[in-house]
Write a structure and sequence with these properties.
This protein is 32% helix and 24% strand. By secondary structure, it is an alpha/beta fold. The protein folds into 2 domains: 6-21 and 235-439, Enolpyruvate transferase domain (UDP-n-acetylglucosamine1-carboxyvinyl-transferase, Chain); 25-220, UDP-n-acetylglucosamine1-carboxyvinyl-transferase, Chain (Alpha-beta prism). It starts with 5 loop residues before the first strand and ends with a helix. It has helices at residues 25-34, 51-63, 90-93, 103-110, 129-137, 168-178, 194-206, 237-249, 265-273, 311-318, 338-344, 374-386, 396-402, 406-412, 432-439; strands spanning 6-10, 16-19, 41-45, 66-70, 75-79, 87-88, 112-116, 141-145, 148-152, 160-162, 183-188, 209-213, 217-222, 230-232, 253-256, 277-281, 284-288, 298-299, 324-328, 348-352, 355-359, 368-370, 390-394, 417-420. The strands form 6 sheets. A 4-stranded mixed sheet has the order 22-23-1-24. A 4-stranded mixed sheet has the order 2-15-17-16, with helices on one face. Strands 4-5-3-14 form a 4-stranded mixed sheet, with helices on one face. The chain binds uridine-diphosphate-N-acetylglucosamine (UD1). Uridine-diphosphate-N-acetylglucosamine (UD1) binds at residues 26, 29, 97-98, 124-131, 165, 167-170, 191, 193, 195, 308-309, 331-332.
Length: 440
């Protein structure tokens, strides 16, 4: 939902303290879609009240599900017995791309699904051809009528599916549909992101027989009866990454209590290469910031590579590091939109197609910036914590789509982030030149 909410981010002291992260938004969304596969009462724990989760609640309710979301304790109750519909209206589908994830479960439960094309962050063309081609391969008939994608099948067939690219959404959608298909479905070049593996865990708890083999093979013995479950969602590695970077960029020291290091190995390695100290313990992941961090280069890749969703936040940290960093975005072709906003704050970045070259500067300055997607909003807030003066960020609906109360957690660690309403006052960017003139 687009609002006139905006965020005022003050330059922060060194952040310090301990916080926990919610369950991963991307795991919650697909897990919620998977409830269509069985009939009964599900309970999910540590569910963030991010807007995308609220959209998915509306989507499932529009199909007939009864849902109660205890937002104080972050517990989500879904009764899927009452789901009787298989048509998802465009108003809901357009709000987020993850809505495509109900296609496989609806096909499994009803043998049909009618969905409008999904929306979501504008970070590239984001086609859904892998989903469609492979449902067709499994025997579904797919047509396009009055802006609805109509998918139907009397009986899906088990197949060996080869994905051209390890797409997270296509792997999840095909895996969920395959749980209903008698016989063996094999997904080759499957995505193995922690959120995909959490879905595997959920489906296995429900009664599915699924085996994950290296490198990137998922085998589903389908046709088993699935039952409702209780499940605690895997901790959000992207929220954990944001909080660790907030400590790094302010020169502080922060512990993320329930974060799982093995979900974010390459990211943690890059933080260490910058000079930060990472400690893993029973108490979670702690980052002690190095006071003169070095720039590091990286390129994004499917798991276990550097996650595309941490590219923008990690770029924020490079803007103030010593030396040059080369960042290459290989997953989405249009995911450097945040560069323009970082430049407004004094960052020195050159872009060549999907590569950004960042030359670290000594200081950045608060400016009026616009968040263009979820992770861009995170990057801008991080730079705001380190930039002189105040940063005003609009486009907060993106921040709300991805995170619940992240600004409150940052404030708990010592940041000063305020949410305001109405038309934001413009910030005059105080560049080095302007700062010198003002000092005269
Ligand atoms: C999911 C995550 C998103 C993350 C992304 C990559 C959710 C809700 N979102 O998105 O946060 O950034 O994984 O880790 O889990 N592609 C095609 N055809 C398809 C499907 C994908 O060409 O049918 C391409 C995409 O355009 C993209 C690449 O494959 O270039 C990866 O996309 P994919 O892994 O499918 O991302 P999502 O599942 O949409």
């Amino acid at each position: 939902m687009i609002t006139n909410e905006h965020m005022l981010i003050e330059q922060s002291e060194k952040l310090s303290g301990e916080v926990s992260v919610f369950g991963a938004k991307n795991a919650v969304l697909v897990t919620m879609a998977s409830t269509i596969l069985a009939s009964g009462k599900f309970i999910f724990y540590n569910v963030p009240a991010s807007t995308d989760v609220l959209y998915m609640i509306s989507l499932l309710e529009s199909l007939g599900a009864h849902i109660i979301f205890n937002r104080i304790e972050n517990i989500l109750y879904i009764n899927s017995s009452s789901i009787t519909l298989w048509r998802v209206c465009p108003e809901i589908m357009k709000k987020m791309r993850a809505s495509i994830l109900v296609m496989g479960p609806l096909l499994a439960r009803f043998g049909k699904a009618e969905i409008a094309l999904p929306g979501g962050c504008v970070i590239g063309a984001r086609p859904i051809d892998y989903h469609i081609k492979n449902f067709e391969k499994m025997g579904a008939i797919i047509g396009n009528e009055h802006n609805y994608l109509k998918v139907s099948s009397n009986r899906l067939q088990p197949q060996t599916i080869v994905l051209e690219y390890p797409s997270v959404g296509a792997t999840e959608n095909i895996m969920m549909a395959a749980t209903s298909v008698k016989g063996t479905t094999k997904i080759i070049n499957a995505a193995l992101e922690p959120e995909v593996l959490d879905l595997v865990k959920v489906l296995k708890k429900m009664g599915a027989i699924i085996e994950v083999q290296a490198p990137g093979i998922i085998i589903i013995q389908g046709g088993k009866y699935l039952s409702p479950i209780e499940h605690e969602i895997v901790p959000d590695r992207l929220e954990a990454g944001a909080l660790l970077l907030a400590a790094a960029i302010t020169g502080g020291s922060v512990t993320i209590k329930n974060a799982r290091a093995h979900d974010m190995d390459v990211f943690l390695l890059k933080l260490e290469q910058m000079g930060h100290t990472i400690q893993l313990g029973q108490n979670g992941i702690t980052l002690h910031a190095c006071q003169d961090p070095k720039a590091v280069s990286f390129k994004t890749a499917p798991y276990p590579g550097f996650p595309t969703d941490l590219q923008a936040p990690m770029m924020a940290a490079q803007c103030l590091a010593q030396g040059k960093a080369v960042i290459e975005e290989t997953v989405f072709e249009n995911r450097l939109v945040h560069v323009r906003e970082l430049q407004k704050m004094g960052a020195q970045i050159e872009v060549y197609h999907t590569k950004a070259i960042i030359t670290g500067v000594d200081e950045l300055y608060g400016a009026s910036v616009i968040a263009s997607d979820i992770r861009a909003s995170c990057a801008l807030a991080l730079v705001g914590l380190a930039a002189k003066g105040i940063t005003i960020m609009t486009g907060i609906h993106h921040w709300r789509r991805g995170y619940e109360l992240l600004e409150t957690k940052l404030n708990h660690l010592g940041a000063n982030i305020q949410v305001a309403y109405g038309k934001p006052m413009p910030v005059i960017q105080k560049t080095n030149r302007l700062a010198k003139e003002l000092e005269r």
